[in-house]
Amino acid sequence: MVAYFCTPDLTILHAVWGPESSQQFLAQAKWAVELGEKLRNAPAAERAAIAGTAHDENPYRTSKGMWSGAGMEHYTRYGHLREKVLQPLNRDMARELFLKLVNEKASDDPVRIVDRYGLFGPPTPSLRPRPRS
Description:
44% of the residues lie in helices and 8% in strands. By secondary structure, the chain is mainly alpha-helical. It has one domain (2-102). Strands 1-2 form a two-stranded antiparallel ribbon. A hairpin with a 5-residue loop joins β1 and β2. The chain starts with a strand and ends in a 31-residue tail after the last helix.
C-alpha cells in the first residue's frame, strides 16, 4: 500500500508505504499538510530547497531504525521518494514510485476471484449480489 500526499494539482509532497500504525499515518499526513502550507507561501525558486530540507529532517525517513537491514532499506526507499518530490503524480510516476517504495509491481489486470467459496464459505445474504431483473 502506498498513500500519496499531493497538492490539488497532483504535485507530489510525500508518500507513506507499507503497513504503518494509524498514529504514524496521521503524523505523516499532518507533516505533508504543513509542508504544503510552507510551499504554498514560498517563492517558486525556493520550493525545491524547502521541500528537500523538510524531507531530510522528517523523522519518518529513519523511523525503522538505522541499525537493521529493514531500517537501511526504508531509508533507501525514502531516497527514491525524495527524488520525486514536487514532480507531478501521473500514472507512470505512480507505477515507478510504487515499485521503488514497496518493491512490488503495479498491475492493470482485473481483480479475479480464484476460489469463490473455498476459503471463506459463501457470502452472507446481505453481501450477495442482487439478482438482475
